[in-house]
Every structure is written in C-alpha cells, then in structure tokens.
C-alpha cells in the first residue's frame, strides 16, 4: 500500500481537501472506472466529524492522506475552508457521487454495496435493499452486497468476497473512520477501481433514511434537519458543536 503522489495538495487541518466540484468528481471517477488496466482508488468525502475524530486518531489521518481523492461532503467543511483560507470549496457529497455515477454509467457499472444492518426473518438488509433499488432506478449491475455488522477479524474474508465479485464501484457505508480504514487497508486485495466511504448513503438508497429536502441543502442546513428528524444522529451533535469553536480558535491563532 502506498500513498498516491499529490504535488502541492491543498489541505485543511492537515487533511487533504482536493475539493473538486460534483461534475469534476464524476468525470474523474468515471475515468478511473474505465481505465484499463484498472487500478484501485479510494475516495473520502470529508465532513466536520472526520476532522474532529482525526484529532485523536493518527491512523485515520494517515488513511485520509492516502486517499486518491477527497471531496467536501459537509457544509461545515465549506465554511471552514472559507473562514481559514478564503477558499471557495464546492460540495460533492457521498450520496450525490454514488447516484451520479450510477446515473451516468447505468448497465455498464458493477456495484458492490457494503454496510448497514443485516436482514432478519427473510427481510433484506440495508445493503441488499440499496442494491435492489439501485438496479431498479439506474439499471446497474449488482456485483454483490454485504451488511456492515462484522468485526475486524472478518475484514479479510469480506475483502476477498468483494475481490471475487470484481465490481467497478464499492460503496462502503460502515461509519466514518471504519469505512475509510477498511477501503484503504484492503484496496490492493479488492482491486476496485473506485471505493468510496459513503456513510449513510446506503440507507438513502435503501429507502430507510430520507434525503434532506432540497431547500435545506441549498441553505446549508441539511445536517441540522437530519439531526432533528433522526434520533440515531443525536449523539453526533456534540461533535459538530465542537467543530465551530475549533475552527474559530484556529482562525484566531493564524491572525
């Protein structure tokens, strides 16, 4: 495993932030998918939680620095880049990247869905539902699916299953940090042209989570809406609350 070369790569809090637009991201990833022979690439969609988690997790920092592409997922990243660097950063959220790639490439695209809760009593799990809905909506090929409720001792087994399925795109939704570390640790084993840590994207694709209304996305308050409407996200609010003073303190230090 080796980190890709990124001369003079822009950063935010020591983390890479390439920050292409959504259209540029889809163009780049589409090129990687169609590249022959294919090479494995990892994508990180950076949000404020990742920044805060990385402050106490050197391995997470290393994994994000090794990613081939880092986009701005959360509006907090856009605000931080503007506040600290005067830099206008476009957003390319994980759910928009996943949908955009499937919409563009359709039947030519083989996708593996990894993450979410497993099924029970004959009911499909989140990953399987996401796969079924994506096949219906975009006509993609389902390379495979697997729930995200497995421990590190099973990582190699799951990675081997993904490698055997030979997807073009791996959507890994196992929570921030866990998903990025898995994608990076097994990138060479899996050999997937594009592996994205995409958090709750599988829940959205599966229909078990609602995408924030468009007006909240335009106004930059979609995460406030998500926290208010989903109890499972309430535990993440303190981390986001700490991000604002963290950024403001960094601005004071540099002034």
Features:
single chain, six-stranded parallel β-sheet, 13 helices, 8 strands, 13% strand, Glycosyltransferase, glycosyltransferase, hexosyltransferase activity, WecG_TagA_CpsF, transferase
In short, what is this structure?
It comes from Deinococcus radiophilus. This protein has 255 residues and is an alpha/beta fold.
The whole-angstrom Rg is: 18 Å
Strand content: 5-15%
Strand order of the largest sheet: 4-3-8-7-5-6
* SS-based class: alpha/beta
Order of helices and strands: EEHEHHEHHEHEHEHHEHHHH
Assign a percent range to the helix content: 40-55%
Q: Based on DSSP secondary structure assignment, what is the total number of beta strands?
A: 8
Kindly report how far apart the N and C termini lie.
39 Å
Main beta-sheet annotation = 6 strands, parallel
Return the average pLDDT rounded to an integer. 89
List low-pLDDT spans: 1-5, 225-229
How many DSSP helices?
13
Kindly give the count of domains.
Answer: 1
Q: How does the overall form come out from the CA principal axes? A: globular
